[in-house]
Amino acid sequence: MQQLPSKLHQPGLVLLIGLAGGLVPGVSQASASVETNLTANIVNATCQVSVENNGEIYLPTIMRGWFYNSDNSNRLTPSDDEAGTPFTIQVVNCYESETSGAGVKQLQFSFSPKNGFWSNQYQVFKNDATTGAAENVGIVIFSSKSRTNVLNSDGSSNVSYDVSSGDEYLKDYQFYARYQNIGAVTGGIVTSNVLVDVHYE
């Protein structure tokens, strides 16, 4: 009997919006049937953001061979720019500090894993799936603007946009996500939980 190649099934990326801001009324609303996860940081300069599809981004099902070249070497590293699944983070409002007379100059996006990093893997969001999880596969996120990984080699994150020219910061910002292996891949589910903070300076 022929064995079918391993696949990664119904993978996804869950973006949990970090609302960076002071006590701002009406930041989010949810119906009784929707479960919402929010992580908040309190800073003086805040932006209200939203992510399409309630923050759930679904990557396509792929074959295990996608990760390898014909000689079985890894096809991609975490810093290799390769097309991925696009998603949008929308900045819908920013609140300036009452003591600040200056306008918005830089919009900063910061990404971090909800459940920490793999050992020595600081540019790959690890697989948080617990049942039927694929092994040695995570997700990398790239900024469409700079075409670079949103995580630096030390795990820090700061994707900056110069928005000093006016109200142009109130718009959609494009990113994309793809799979990344960190070892020998086995088939299964991939789910990465990612926190996103947005603030301005």
Automatic annotation (TrEMBL):
<dbReference type="GO" id="GO:0043709">
    <property type="term" value="P:cell adhesion involved in single-species biofilm formation"/>
</dbReference>
<dbReference type="InterPro" id="IPR050263">
    <property type="entry name" value="Bact_Fimbrial_Adh_Pro"/>
</dbReference>
<dbReference type="GO" id="GO:0009289">
    <property type="term" value="C:pilus"/>
</dbReference>
<dbReference type="Pfam" id="PF00419">
    <property type="entry name" value="Fimbrial"/>
</dbReference>
<feature type="domain" description="Fimbrial-type adhesion">
    <location>
        <begin position="37"/>
        <end position="200"/>
    </location>
</feature>
<protein>
    <submittedName>
        <fullName>Fimbrial-like protein</fullName>
    </submittedName>
</protein>
<dbReference type="InterPro" id="IPR000259">
    <property type="entry name" value="Adhesion_dom_fimbrial"/>
</dbReference>
